[in-house]
Amino acid sequence: MKRIQCLRFFTVKYSTSANPLSRKEFSEFITTGFVKMVETGEGKAKLISGTAVAKEIREGLAREVSELKNEFPDFKPAMAIVQVGDRSDSNVYINTKIKAAAEIGIQASLVKLPSTITQRELLTKLRKLNDDVNIHGIIVQMPLDTVNKIDSHLVTDSVSPEKDIDGLNTLNEGRVAIGDFSGFMPCTPNGVMELIKRSGVQIAGSDAVVLGRSKIVGTPVAELLKWHNATVTVCHSKTKDIEKHTSRADILVVGIGQPEFVKGSWIRPGAVVIDCGINSIPDASKKSGYRLVGDVAFAEVAAVAGAVTPVPGGVGPMTVAMLMQNTVIAAKRAASRHFGAASTWQQFQPLTLNTTTPVPSDIEISRSQEPKQIGELAAEVGILPSEVIPYGSTKAKVSLSVLDRLKSTATGKYIVVAGITPTPLGEGKSTTTIGLVQALTAHKNKNSFACVRQPSQGPTFGIKGGAAGGGYSQIIPMEELNLHLTGDLHAVTAANNLLAAQLDARIFHERTQSDEALYSRLVPRGKDGRHFTSVQLRRLQRLGIAKTDPDSLTPEEYGRFARLDIDPDTISWTRVMDVNDRFLRKITIGKSPTEKNQTRDTSFSITVASEIMAILALATDVSDMKQRLASMVVAMDTKGNPVTADDLAMTGAMTVLLKDAIQPTLMQTVEGTPVFVHAGPFANIAHGCSSIIADAIALKLVGQDGYVATEAGFGSDIGMEKFFNIKCRASGLVPDAIVLVATIRALKMHGGGPAVTAGQSLSKEYTQENVELVKAGVANLVKHISNGQKFGVPLVVAINKFETDTEAEIELVRSMCVTAGAEAVVVCSHWAEGGRGAGDLADAVIKACEQPKSFRFLYDLNSSIEEKIRTISAEMYGASSVEFTPIVRQRMQEYEKKGFGKLPVCMSKTALSLSGDPALKGVPTNFAINVSDIYLSAGAGFVVAMVGEITKMPGLPTRPCIYNIDYNTEKDEIEGLF
Length: 978
Known about the structure:
Blueprint: E1 3-5, E2 10-14, H1 23-32, E3 34-36, E4 43-47, H2 50-71, E5 78-84, H3 88-104, E6 107-113, H4 119-131, E7 137-141, H5 152-158, H6 170-177, H7 187-199, E8 207-211, H8 218-227, E9 231-235, H9 242-246, E10 251-254, E11 272-275, E12 279-282, E13 290-293, H10 298-304, E14 307-308, H11 315-339, H12 362-368, H13 374-380, E15 388-390, E16 396-398, H14 401-405, E17 413-419, H15 429-443, E18 448-452, H16 457-461, E19 469-470, E20 473-476, H17 478-482, H18 488-512, H19 515-522, E21 525-526, E22 529-530, H20 534-543, H21 555-562, E23 575-577, E24 587-589, E25 600-602, E26 604-606, H22 611-618, H23 622-631, E27 633-636, E28 642-644, H24 651-658, E29 665-669, E30 674-677, H25 692-702, E31 707-715, H26 716-731, E32 737-743, H27 744-750, H28 764-767, H29 771-789, E33 795-800, H30 807-820, E34 824-828, H31 830-833, H32 839-849, H33 865-877, E35 881-884, H34 886-897, E36 905-908, E37 928-937, E38 942-947, E39 966-968, E40 973-975
Parallel strand pairs: 4-14, 5-6, 5-7, 8-9, 8-10, 10-11, 11-14, 17-31, 17-32, 18-30, 18-31, 23-26, 32-33, 33-34, 35-37, 36-38
Antiparallel strand pairs: 1-3, 2-4, 12-13, 15-16, 16-29, 19-20, 20-29, 21-22, 24-25, 27-28, 29-30, 37-38, 39-40
Helix pairs in contact: 2-11, 3-11, 7-8, 7-11, 15-32, 18-24, 19-21, 23-24, 26-29, 27-29, 29-30
């Protein structure tokens, strides 16, 4: 006898009756891949060792996993084995899978569940595993009988098709049936096919017979053979003259579940026989009292067949190998989704836009377009189902876990959209932002996102109306955007007002209780004694009291801990609501007799003016938001020390109210391109930009070749300056381009055109060619270009075209802006044409993003507060001087002493002029900036300098938008909303 090493096939001589391989010899064969030559008999068969083939496959998979981990170091391929009950035979099979997974580099977790588990409990567990992005494959090991009746088919189908590595979900089975192999093939049938291929037989054109029709083996094997172009006959235990069918088979697959059912006489000489059965039959000669056999009489068949699989060591190891192969495939797909989110955009399909002339109203356009289901849009842009929290069918919150998943993914190009000094004629900054991303995504095949602020209901019901963009470049559905959306503004309102309530309540309780009584109520004694909460321990630490036992404090420490000693005259925190109500600009609270004459004057602000709204926009994650909320200074104590929200124990409660609001809202444009709507800080008294989180998630989702356009409020002197100096400092993100939006009409007004009165026709200066007015007004646009250049970022001018604009007027603007240093000046018609009308703008932006940049901030944070204000006033506004009131100078000194001097400055001034006087249009000169007040937004992370009177609570005009808005109960439609 001699041994012959073979790569794939193993030839062995068998006697038709006696002298099969001993168990030891057979074990040696299936583990080493060597061939044992037996010199008796004349029959020959290729013995196909599934163990050796499976080993080769596992080694290849191990290399693939290693390469996958090298490409994505933070990624770990993982599978979950759900075991219901605890049976020894099941344990052996599971252990085999776990061992194979470990060899390959797959993390296998065993989820053991009792046999008493209910169907609902099992389905709930599987749903959680489906949603777990760290699990890529799921198999369920169930006994035939459970204590509680469980529908095994329902359980199988409850495993997500993307994680169904067993290939038993009906969707995956159905794919196999129609020849679609894009899903997962069932493991045993797939292993059978691999063994047949390794046998050397030509499958195409062969006669194949499958014995057995089970959904796990027989039926899918038959389908696979069929789609490999074999002529397939399926037989079963009740097939008449079954041996006549088998005797003509070139390929015979047996999975009929009966020991040694197929005899040698049934086999056509030279046929390939795959034995899928494994049966235990009595054998007194064995120590165990039984031996394992297949569904074919092995010795007989081996004497006739051309190739045959042994039992064990044939199909069994291949089943495990194919399971591992499916797991690696699932992991690779998951890695592509997880870390290569941009690649999923290949499936993106824009909505068709049918434009009409004249352009209908915004709400008519919005209603004429059927939006995508929000889950469909999320999938197109690489957001996983587990990261989407739907609010109806057209909007959804997106989990911040996207950032963690894509933390190693390269980011896209970052574009900020700003405007010239606003006029009543409007410049269309939001419309341009939307039109640009429609052009990039729907017409230029670039991954792109728009990030905009959430509209306040104040303007919606006041003067402006809706804020969803306009015409054929808007966000849909516009009603949902402008009314409530996902409740973020209400969450900010609740958090703000809860803090206000706690602030006044604390003053009341401190004034009416002794130190000891106050301390006893703040740290009550329960059944398990007294305990400080986490927020109270933080206060003790700030006070320098190194104690954690409430009973160990001294009477003096009782008072220090319990009393905030708030000076009511220094309270800066006001209540808010998201409506325009001028009569809340100054109010008196505490008039009820129950408040014991503890009255004080205060006010309401509009919700978007709350510091909490600015924090929501500037937070980088939940922890950062929580820390910022804790740091908010709401007043000073009687000794002049800051009193924070954390001192009032409000940090946790506000975070809970805002835990959903910190997630950006996903919506879409009229062309089905994605938009994040998130946060809405006032551009006057805050920084006026959408959230850092929305921008960050969008930049990851579009990938390094994609684009994100984010909007900054008002002109470059306000929104863009704060975007760079405040928002970019907080985010660490560096913009690649600026888009500056202007209109010919607005430039005419800055050039000295007549005033515009709402409801009256425009003067002829705005509807007829007037080159001189345009020439005078371009100076304002040139100043904004200059402002952008100070930050070292390439700038593109977008001219929103109206039908009354003439070529001479446009060419004048183009010439002057290029001379001023703009990378390009582009005429856009996206309001009337959608993304198609912003195609040239998209091209210019793409080119600008490729230009070198030398980004820099306008000022050094180490400069004093006064120096920062002077720098902004001179560089951004063109002011010749800055004047400070005595109280402002005093407060600046106090802020410097208390460690707030290194914060950036948020200038609060009119948006209607580069100066502090809204009546001064164009480019004012020789003017002074008068800083009338200054206050601290420590949580947001800036100092607010007030220039003139800026109200935080707008009022309703004589005829607000309210007159236009109605609800048609017959049509179930909102009417008159913009």
